[in-house]
Design a protein that fits this description.
Strand content: 15-25%
Distance between the termini: 94 Å
Number of strands: 11
Order of helices and strands: HHEHEEHHEEHEEEEEHEHHHHHHHH
Shape: elongated
Structural class: alpha+beta
Length: 440
């Protein structure tokens, strides 16, 4: 790779391809369509090569978060790499059938051509050789052995002089088998025997790249999700893997990358959202001094929820962390409208208005403040809600939720909330009851 921060083998190549401005793209072209076109054009002429598409900063962030190149990956932990690799390809085959999952690749640990020299201890003992003697010959003949040091004149710098066999005597399996090993003969001299006499020499498939995390080996299965929301695609894949794959003893799976970050974010939202609701209700209670009025003002939150859900459904946008944050913001904005209407109603009751007149007058008078509050938030996020450029997928769900909810919330606040106030609020009823009693 051109990026010096990536340490990887020759099996990985990265190409940086700058994109033209979006205004010069053909009509209807999107980032997802462009990625699919490039992937299809490359897959045909290069069979067996697995492609993955990312962006500068995104690629570095994803790799830092998961330790694996790719938007998402499944880490298969275990000790036996051969067994893990077979299981990894079973998982890949199952995930390939899940709609939306693309760019599947198993980052193989095996595949490095390796010369395996296994000493036959019985034969070596027959010639009076110990395994260490055979290993010393192999090390000196193939790897080399330091015979001395070369010192640089006028300084203390020195370089080891390494002696080993000429390449033609160690460059092939047959040449390695013929490496001479010295053994003592009956006459007290030395005799040369080929290495193949006391060792089995063969070409095997060794480990090329071993991934480790927390002192445990693992094999990653990288993948991406396009044309579908990440959560449902991964959930379907998990269900199929649980039913169809039997993991080796001691093995386990871990889903990392964007999905791992999604799970962490959702776990944090499970704490943040209830705290937000509690904080909103506490502030309402401080403002009204009544649990009943606080609940009435908070009742506008489900009303705003309707518009946000409807906006996501119409645009086909899946629920995400960004959308969840948008709902939290939407609840706060909508509660402001509820406070305006309910506070003015209470003010009219204290001024001596009849309940029915107070409800109608509060709805009419607060129409403009409620609309201005909602329109200000709607107009501010409207550009983000209709954005289609690269990067808009992060902010768009949040903006859609707020804009959709704010468009519907004023109608419900000004129509439904006054009815709920008339039904559930007790303000003004005590005065009405006391006047009727006095008249009687």
């Amino acid at each position: 790779p051109d990026d010096g921060t990536d340490t990887t083998g020759f099996f990985n190549a990265e190409f940086f391809v700058p994109l033209k401005p979006a205004s010069e793209w053909p009509a209807g072209m999107t980032k997802e369509k462009l990625t699919k076109l490039v992937s299809d054009d490359l897959s045909a002429p290069f069979p067996g090569v697995e492609f993955n598409f990312s962006q500068y900063i995104e690629d570095n962030v994803e790799e830092a978060a998961s330790g694996v190149k790719g938007q998402n990956s499944v880490k298969l932990y275990g000790n036996d790499l051969e067994t893990l690799e077979k299981t990894a390809y079973q998982i890949k085959a199952i995930m390939a059938k899940v709609p939306g999952i693309t760019d599947l690749s198993v980052l193989d640990a095996l595949g490095q051509p390796t010369v395996n020299i296994k000493i036959n201890r019985d034969k070596a003992a027959h010639y009076g050789l110990a395994p260490a003697d055979v290993n010393a010959v192999v090390q000196a003949a193939i790897g080399g052995q330091a015979a001395g040091n070369l010192y640089e004149y006028g300084s203390d710098r020195n370089f080891p002089i390494v002696v080993r066999l000429d390449p033609k005597f160690r460059g092939s399996i047959d040449a390695i088998k013929a490496i001479p090993v010295a053994v003592a003969n009956a006459a007290g001299g030395m005799t040369q025997i080929p290495l193949s006499t006391v060792a089995d020499v063969r070409l095997a498939s060794g480990y090329s790249f071993i991934y480790r995390e927390n002192q445990t080996r693992y094999i990653p299965i990288a993948f991406a999700v396009r044309g579908r929301d990440l959560g449902s695609a991964v959930l379907e894949a998990q269900n199929k893997i649980d039913k169809q794959v039997v993991l080796p003893a001691g093995a386990r799976l871990e889903w990392v990358g964007e999905f791992g970050e999604l799970q962490s974010a959702l776990a944090r939202l499970e704490i943040v959202v209830p705290i937000s609701f509690m904080a909103i209700f506490m502030l309402l209670y401080i403002n009204f001094g009544s649990i009943r009025d606080s609940l009435l003002a908070a009742s506008v939150m489900p009303m705003a929820l309707v518009g946000g859900i409807f906006a996501l459904y119409i645009t086909g946008t899946p629920f995400s962390v960004s959308a969840a944050i948008g709902f939290v913001g939407l609840f706060g904005i909508s509660v402001m409208g509820g406070i305006l209407v309910l506070s003015y109603f209470n003010q009219l009751i204290r001024a001596g208005f009849a309940r029915e007149d107070a409800v109608l007058h509060a709805a009419r008078t607060q129409f403009r403040p409620v609309m201005m509050t909602c329109i200000a938030a709607c107009v501010g996020l409207l550009p983000a809600a209709v954005a289609t450029g690269i990067g808009s997928q992060v902010q768009k769900p949040l903006a859609l939720v707020v804009v959709g909810g704010i468009l519907v919330a004023p109608l419900l606040i000004l129509i439904v909330l006054p009815v709920m106030i008339d039904i559930f609020s007790t303000r003004g009823r005590e005065t009405l009851g006391e006047s009727e009693e006095a008249t009687a």
